[in-house]
Amino acid sequence: MREYSLIDRFLIGMDQALQTVHAPPRTTERENPADDIPEAEDLPANERDLTGRLMRINHAGEIAAQGLYQGQALTARDPQVKQQMQRSSEEENDHLAWCEQRIEELGGHKSYLGPFWYLGSYGIGAAAGLLGDKWSLGFVRETENQVVEHIDGHMNRVSEHDLRTRAILDQMRVDEARHAYKASVAGAAHLPSPVRRLMRLASRVMTGTAYWV
User: Fold this and answer.
1) 9-37: b (≥16 Cβ within 10 Å) or e
2) What gap in Å lies between CA 66 and CA 12, rounded to an integer?
3) Is the dihedral of CA 81, 174, 143, 97 positive or negative?
4) Is 80 helix (H, G, I), strand (E, B) or coil?
5) Cα–Cα nearest to 33, from 157, 179, 163, 176
6) Which residue in 12, 131, 137, 174 is a FRET match for 155, CA 20 to 30 A apart?
7) CA-CA distance, 54 to 174, in Å (whole number)?
8) Across the chain, where does the E strand assignment appear?
9) Residue 132 CB partners (closer than 8 Å, separation 6+)
10) Distance, CA of 182 to CA of 211 (rounded, Å)
């Protein structure tokens, strides 16, 4: 098996960045959980608009997640941690594709700041990896736990009649919680409170911006 240099992995990461932001995501074998669910009839325009914006936030979050995982994989030391990051990244790509499809169905658009979300998270992920695998995994666990909270909040705002959107969010929530659990089992460090608060602040900035742009 070929051993890639740091420069090789950086270039691979940039290629993945371009694919994440500008090309159809490379998904896994899983189907969209909304594929067999009919579209809600007579969903009011204001609810469609709100849900489209919420899914845009989720899509932006998945772009950020790709950046985080790829940045961490760049600097991770343990081959098993790298493999775990890669698999989680692939599953996040599923979310990316599902969110994009739902946004299009609702007549919305993706965030125009996708490259910014990716590169910012890529830098954070790479820096976390340099601190050591346990800290990198700690960032994963905290990020995924915060994402679960966001999804719970979105579920409370999406119409109970919009079963397609709710099915996607349900599966995303299951996956994110599993990623957090896997990071814990792999030895994630407990992040200091100031770091967790800073992550929440950055998340609020991203979600608030993506709602509009």
Assistant:
1) bbeebeebbeebbeeebebeeeebbbeee
2) 13
3) positive
4) helix
5) 163
6) 137
7) 18
8) none
9) 77
10) 30
φ/ψ bin of 187: left (φ > 0), alpha (ψ from -120 to 50), beta (otherwise): left
Task: Provide the whole-model pTM.
Answer: 0.88
| Cα-Cα-Cα-Cα dihedral sign, residues 132, 58, 26, 145 | positive
169: amino acid identity, one letter? L
User: Nearest-CA neighbor of 183 among 131, 141, 146?
Assistant: 141
pLDDT by residue, tens only, the chain of 213 residues:
566 676 776 777 677 776 677 667 677 778 999 999 999 988 999 999 999 999 999 999 999 888 888 887 777 777 777 777 777 777 788 999 999 999 999 999 999 998 899 888 888 888 887 888 888 889 889 999 999 999 999 999 999 999 999 999 999 999 999 999 988 998 899 999 998 998 899 899 999 999 999
Structure tokens at 58: 């989720």
Give the whole-angstrom CA distance, residue 133 versus residue 37. 40
